[in-house]
Amino acid sequence: RGGLVGSEMCIRDSVEGTVEVWEAPRFAGGASFGGCFNIMGPGQFVTQPNTFINNTPDPGGGIVDIDVVNRTVHRVESSPLECDVYRTPRDGADGWLYVGSDNTNTTIVVDHNGTEVGSYAGFARPFFDAQGRLLAKSGDFDGVGDYVELDPLTGDVVAEALFTANRATATNGGKFISVIFERMDGPVPDPSGLLDAATYEVVVDLSAETGRAISGRASADDSRFGYVSKDDRLLVWDTSSGELVIDVSVAERAERIAFSPDGSSIALLVDAGTLQIRSGDDGQIVRTFDVSREPVMAMDWANEDQIAVLRTFGVVDIVATQG
Fold this sequence. Notes:
Layout: E1 2-6, E2 9-10, E3 18-22, E4 33-41, E5 44-49, E6 63-67, E7 72-76, E8 86-87, E9 97-101, E10 106-111, E11 116-121, E12 123-128, E13 134-138, E14 145-150, E15 157-165, E16 167-170, E17 176-180, E18 193-196, E19 202-205, E20 217-218, E21 224-228, E22 233-238, E23 243-249, E24 254-259, E25 265-270, E26 274-279, E27 285-290, E28 296-303, E29 306-311, E30 316-320
Antiparallel strand pairs: 1-7, 2-3, 3-30, 4-5, 5-6, 6-7, 8-9, 9-10, 10-11, 12-13, 13-14, 14-15, 16-17, 17-18, 18-19, 20-21, 21-22, 22-23, 24-25, 25-26, 26-27, 28-29, 29-30
């Protein structure tokens, strides 16, 4: 039901700045990704197709697990999971777990082949942290509740009342948990804070700023966290001090944000196809690219000098950020 697929890269000059195109994740028959994705590490996208590669209906939600750094694609043809699928860290392991839900107050764990391991009623909005611990909210899917740690194989509660939130997820480097304390207001949740992943104490308070126009992201080393606000400001925090270090206006409509691994550069996708590279010191534009060839699903830095742009039809453009 699942398997790893590799592919060679090919040179392509039709999109500005693109030095390579990876075709392996592409879907057959014009199928495309659905609206949900999660980034599980540098250049690692976990998402779901609208229809799977064999062009059959996919009501339950197949899984496409893309690792741009290692050039692998793991496909699960079907699973009971709906939107927002998370994976345990691979760390070279032959097997790993995915977790999600069926859009009810039930946490569902499947193995790397899509076989259900356990279904745990009464726990919603689950995710795996950087250590592979399964955290889920006790209670209503849309409400505010206590997050607990569950044993992924049995559903037993390992630790209770870790923190209270509407939703939460681990940051890119795993040092923090990004939380939304209150119920979601509008299409993108308002920011609340970053919690220490070990103590669950608030280390960066985001609640004083206006809501997000796009979801927040952290750099791979978790030194920076930022987003574009509803009033069109690029806001970036230094996570070690908790200080807001960048606050600049963004003239265009922002759609995606990503940080270079050390937070020294910021990528913004704006106006449905312009990729801006901005300074991590002051947020000013350093360079722009036209990447509007196909709709963009997600993007992330593959390394210090290249950004992976994942298209909705599965193609990954590798864009060189330097000249």
